[in-house]
Design brief:
Helix 1 packs across helix 4. The protein is 28% helix and 11% strand. It has 258 residues and is an alpha+beta fold. It has one domain.
């Protein structure tokens, strides 16, 4: 029999209470972090998905020699509007995910959804150098990057895609970032956009973020900024774009450009 009074035969109630308190604190901390972890997971997912979308657009250009139009906001069906290369009815709208053959989560209207359940957006440049462009005057009126053979016939030297990406530092005009210091990228042929967790109609959208929801053939500026929940300066849009030099290189590899 052990008669040493300094050797404990078990945990005291105080020790058990301390252990339970520590465990409770750790569990509470973990539970509190779950929403943050879920949001980070969604941002990682949208980053991966938009990379896949950009690659699909490059592949489309390699096969068709042009970029697709957007899907009409009024008629969301996942199909470019139209997809025959003779005209473009919609410059800014939903992503033509079915036209691009992208796997993912779709809604009942065949629109590809981002990790928050919002439809991906897309805009292609409407810039048109016209019928006088190119060494053989082979440009066709209607938009260089979506008309059949126009990217090739107008030639890379004469193409002038006009979409711009700005930071949220200064308010842009519909066609210009305003200052070189806030210009992230310019002469962009096409943009892919996720409207983030707030979507397009959430009351928490800041005025500069809403710039990304109402573009058109004449509104060619998009905003990319740091993700923020600060009241009055909220921003959660994720934007990626087609790089012109990468587009031309891939089309050259596919024999679509000389």
């Amino acid at each position: 029999m052990n008669s040493n009074p300094t050797i404990s035969k078990g945990f005291t109630l105080i020790e058990i209470a301390i252990v339970l308190l520590v465990v409770s604190i750790l569990l509470g901390y973990t539970v509190a972090l779950l929403p943050v972890q879920q949001e980070l997971k969604r941002y990682r997912a949208v980053d991966k998905e938009t990379d896949i979308i950009i690659d699909a657009i490059y592949a489309y250009a390699q096969v068709n020699g042009r970029l697709p139009c957007a899907v009409s906001l009024a008629v969301p069906n996942g199909i470019a509007d139209p997809d025959d290369g003779d005209q473009c009815n919609t410059w800014y709208g939903f992503l033509p995910a079915k036209t691009l053959g992208i796997d993912g989560r779709y809604d009942a209207s065949n629109s590809l959804l981002d990790p928050w359940g919002n439809r991906y957006r897309y805009q292609v440049t409407a810039n048109d150098t016209g019928a006088e462009a190119g060494p053989e005057d082979l440009g066709v009126a209607g938009g260089d990057f979506i008309m059949k053979h126009d990217i090739k016939n107008v030639t890379m030297e004469n193409l002038g895609p006009d979409l711009e990406i700005c930071t949220a530092v200064a308010t842009p005009t519909p066609t210009d970032c305003g200052l070189p210091t806030v210009t992230v990228a310019e002469r962009i042929p096409a943009v892919v956009l996720s409207l983030g967790k707030n979507g397009a109609t959430a009351p928490a959208e800041s005025s500069i973020q809403s710039e990304n929801t109402d573009n058109s053939a004449t509104d060619t500026v998009f905003i990319r900024s740091t993700i923020s929940d600060v009241e009055g300066a909220e921003f959660d849009d994720i934007i990626k774009w087609i790089a012109p030099n990468t587009l031309y290189s891939k089309m050259i590899e596919a024999g679509q450009l000389p």
